[in-house]
Amino acid sequence: MQRRKIKVLRIINRFNIGGPTYNATFLSKFLSDDFETLLIGGLPEEGESDSLHIPRSYGLEPLLIPELKRQPNFFSDRKALKKIKEIIREFNPDIVHTHASKAGALGRKAAIDCKVPVIVHTFHGHVFHSYFGSFKTHIFKLIERRLAAKTNGIIAISALQKKELCDQYRIAPENKTTVIPLGFDLQKFQLHQQAKRAKTRQEFKIHDDEVAIAIIGRLSPVKNHSFFIDVIANLHLRTTKKIKVFIVGDGEERDRIQQKMEVLCPTAPILFTSWIKDISSFNPGMDIICLTSHNEGTPVSLIEAQACNVAVLSTDVGGVRDIVDDGNTGYICPPNNLENYTDKLLELVEDENIRQKMSQNGWSFVENKFGYQRLVKDVEIYYKNKLSEKGYTFE
């Protein structure tokens, strides 16, 4: 008699470019034959790039819930909750695993109401600072604490994030919170790098004597592109090297960032590219990839940069120290320290030997630590442990 597969309903906020989409895709596609997974989620917000090409490229066709939106809205949230409950009753999952805040709130509420045996939530980041005002942040903390109390397991994607969730913000106890880092399909970033570099530099007219600098991510306040413009303005005054700067992404801050750029560094060669889907072809054309965020979970752009053998520079936020080998694959700077960040970027721009050393170290650092195979193995063990606690047995 064939054993019944373990059913997992995976719920993601929305299919926009970022770590949650990749995480949900790999866990939906590559779990062993012991599992059957249904992936559902919302659509991107205005200004975000649709990432449905990611699961589809692995042969997955997610079930879309248009009402599952980022911003709280009584009417759309109510419709989304009703739809999720209908899906749970039809699919009858053993596990509901939610990813990120909105999916975590509505998905867990639906799973609790439907008495799903095991409910798991992954924090891909959090909104407990640098997103909202103090009152709204307080409300979100209360909601997350109540949900965590009825959740069987909380997954943090870095040790620092676990410390924030358990100690700093007291969202969940330590014995309920497990660290499982993200995992990615990184091998493609190593393929045909020289050809990709030549093609990208030709497409964007980057000359051999120009140092190409990129920042990749949603143009929103938490990503702090305003600080990045301050850095580039300072750098432009201090270096004699030729540079070319790329702002990759889009979002609500675009107009403000462009206006600031026109005031502070009107002659600096800065190009807004909007979203670039084939980042594994774009990255090799860069020499340095930056991140300036106020708050992060595990920034995918830095993992992808190192997988392409590109030196990185980042603010010291979220799980950055878990994914960047400071001094060996890149530099990590205190948040909002303009002098320090500019100094480190200047050093990388002017010293090709340092960039080359970091370039060579990047791939070996991320290869084993952030491959999807490790992620899938960790999560399978985690799922079976949680089910065992509920009396499930496995042959």
Describe this entry's structure for a reader.
The chain is α/β, with parallel strands linked by helices. The protein folds into 2 domains: 6-185 and 371-389, Glycogen Phosphorylase B (Rossmann fold), CATH 3.40.50; 187-367, Glycogen Phosphorylase B (Rossmann fold, 3-Layer(aba) Sandwich). It contains 15 helices and 13 strands. β4, α4 and β5 form a beta-alpha-beta unit. α8 (225-238) runs parallel beside α9, α8 crosses α13 (338-350) and α11 crosses α14. The model has no long low-confidence stretch (mean pLDDT 92).
Number of H/I helices: 15
- Compute the number of strand runs: 13
How is the largest sheet built, in terms of strand order?
Answer: 3-2-1-4-5-6-7
CATH topology of the largest domain: Rossmann fold
Q: Given the helix and strand composition, which structural class is it?
A: alpha/beta
Helix content: 40-55%
Write down the secondary-structure element order. EHEHEHEHEHEHEHEHEHEHEHEHEHHH
Query: Please, how many domains?
Result: 2
